[in-house]
């Protein structure tokens, strides 16, 4: 019997819930199965910034009551500092990327570099109770990456938000990221190796064995030349930052990055810095699929760039629509979009929002097409020297629950979209207690099918500190996608960041089964 078969059999016999559910998991449980909370989850937060004028806030949260019946265990949830691989000759913690004649050697240098242990191993943002956020801040330019796990009552829906404000310099802006779960493959449409961009992919290994990672860049003509992204070793409990421009000799404005862990697993996120547009995190896009939704385009966006790729063997023809508060519309001059297999396509969507917030919906032009696609948006607010960019990748729908941590008294906007006509979405949004006090408040919203809705979310009564938002579709709701924008102006710069809110996969379906140990010996 195969190892996979043994694992499946053990799960059936013991009834142990897995940590993550697959994409596309149905809303309804198959007959005889039951939905149980996960018993353990893992998160990884990349090193925040090397700026001397940056300040980072970490906010951890686990929904209250999410793990009812999870063996009655209180559990733990905490992050701990990780080591950093510093490339040879790099005095900036791995962020001093090679240029000129040394291009193409950065990943190899990182893999062969020195591992620097964290100065402090104390836990960060450990949770004491569910339903109440915990915050911590740092202004250290060498703040490390964080790795951690949650179990018991804290495991289902455990969320950590990392928000960094950089007041000046090339990396200025508001950088936000919901810390990622480890996996073996990631797609990042929207990266760049152009001279005016510095994009780093941060690879973090949460486990006690090394991981081996391959990085592949796709430009408008296909895979970019260069083998520098192969066989990158990520030591246990360590992060490796890789400057993408060192992977190729061809500067490329619009590219897609594929991260594959051939051994082990990693967390991955891209920190993008633009000389004119500031900086932000680009989180991984949802797994490639025939249809994708990119929620949360702000109403005052001054430019929107779509970057898309068909990673499979087939080309893809897509219908492009914007879900607005009044319905689905087709952007002028972009009725359809043709994606060639393995080639990155970028389109500037001029005057897209026209003063109305919206979400982009990409569906096959031919309803029978199953060609998978992946996509992301680069969104800009402001004008002239006071511009700021953020990224919106394709995201998974909210099936049971999604969470956005680090909301303040002002500055949060919640975007909801029901992309399918005739399938209205009804969701309950709950504002948690504040980190320093306050009473939770819930409000229900209905989004008409084919429309989007932007709202100022509810706030806890008597709020002190920061709070979290949970989004839960009501029974019978149509499909719904969500994103949260944080806006915190820096002088005349409309600094902002957008986090997509995919389902938190806090529960899994476990099939009903009787004990039959003969399965293990057949």
TrEMBL record:
InterPro entries: DUF5719. It comes from the Bacteria. This is Secreted protein. Residues 66-118, 430-462 are annotated as: Disordered. It comes from Streptomyces glebosus. Keywords: Signal. Pfam families: DUF5719 (PF18986). The keyword Signal applies. Residues 1-20 form the signal peptide.
């Amino acid at each position: 019997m195969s190892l996979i078969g043994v694992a499946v059999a053990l799960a059936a016999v013991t009834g142990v819930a897995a940590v993550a559910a697959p994409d596309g998991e149905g809303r309804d449980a198959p007959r005889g199965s039951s939905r149980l909370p996960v018993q353990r989850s893992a998160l990884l937060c990349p090193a925040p910034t090397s700026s001397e004028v940056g300040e980072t806030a970490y906010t951890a949260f686990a929904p209250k009551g999410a793990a009812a019946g999870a063996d009655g265990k209180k559990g733990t949830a905490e992050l701990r500092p990780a080591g950093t691989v510093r490339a040879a000759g790099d005095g900036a913690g791995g962020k001093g990327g090679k240029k000129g004649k040394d291009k193409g050697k950065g990943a190899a240098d990182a893999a062969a570099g020195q591992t620097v242990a964290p100065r402090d191993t104390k836990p960060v943002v450990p949770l004491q109770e569910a339903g109440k956020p915990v915050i911590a801040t740092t202004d250290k330019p060498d703040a490390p990456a964080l790795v951690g796990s949650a179990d018991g009552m804290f495991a289902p829906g455990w969320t950590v938000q990392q928000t960094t404000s950089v007041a000046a310099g090339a990396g200025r802006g508001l950088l936000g990221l919901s810390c990622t779960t480890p996996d073996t493959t990631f797609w990042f449409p929207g990266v760049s190796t152009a001279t005016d961009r510095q994009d780093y992919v941060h690879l973090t290994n949460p486990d006690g064995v090394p991981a081996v990672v391959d990085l592949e860049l796709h430009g408008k003509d296909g895979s970019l030349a260069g083998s520098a992204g192969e066989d990158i070793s990520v030591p246990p409990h360590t992060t490796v930052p890789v400057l993408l421009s060192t992977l190729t000799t061809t500067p490329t404005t619009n590219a897609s990055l594929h991260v594959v862990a051939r051994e082990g697993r990693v967390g991955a996120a891209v920190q993008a810095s633009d000389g004119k547009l500031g900086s932000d995190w680009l989180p991984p896009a949802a797994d490639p699929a025939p249809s994708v939704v990119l929620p949360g385009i702000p109403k005052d966006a001054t430019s929107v760039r779509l970057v898309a790729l068909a990673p499979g063997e087939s080309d893809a023809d897509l219908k492009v629509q914007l879900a607005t508060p009044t319905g689905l519309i087709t952007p002028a001059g972009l009725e359809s979009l043709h994606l060639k297999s393995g080639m990155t396509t970028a389109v500037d969507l001029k005057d897209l929002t026209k003063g109305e917030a919206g979400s982009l919906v990409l569906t096959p032009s031919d309803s029978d097409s199953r060609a998978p696609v992946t996509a992301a948006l680069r969104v800009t607010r402001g004008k002239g020297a006071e511009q700021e960019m953020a990224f919106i990748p394709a995201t998974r729908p909210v099936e049971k629950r999604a969470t956005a941590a680090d909301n303040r008294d002002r500055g949060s906007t919640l975007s909801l979209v029901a992309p399918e006509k005739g399938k209205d979405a009804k969701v309950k949004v709950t504002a948690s207690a504040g980190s320093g006090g306050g009473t939770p408040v819930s409000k229900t919203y209905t989004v008409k099918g084919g429309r989007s809705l932007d709202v100022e979310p509810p706030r806890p009564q008597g709020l002190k500190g920061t709070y979290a938002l949970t989004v839960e579709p009501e029974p019978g709701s149509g499909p719904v996608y969500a994103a949260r924008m944080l806006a915190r102006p820096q002088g005349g710069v409309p600094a902002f960041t957008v986090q997509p809110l995919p389902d938190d996969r806090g529960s899994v379906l476990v099939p009903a089964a009787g004990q039959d140990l003969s399965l293990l010996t057949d």
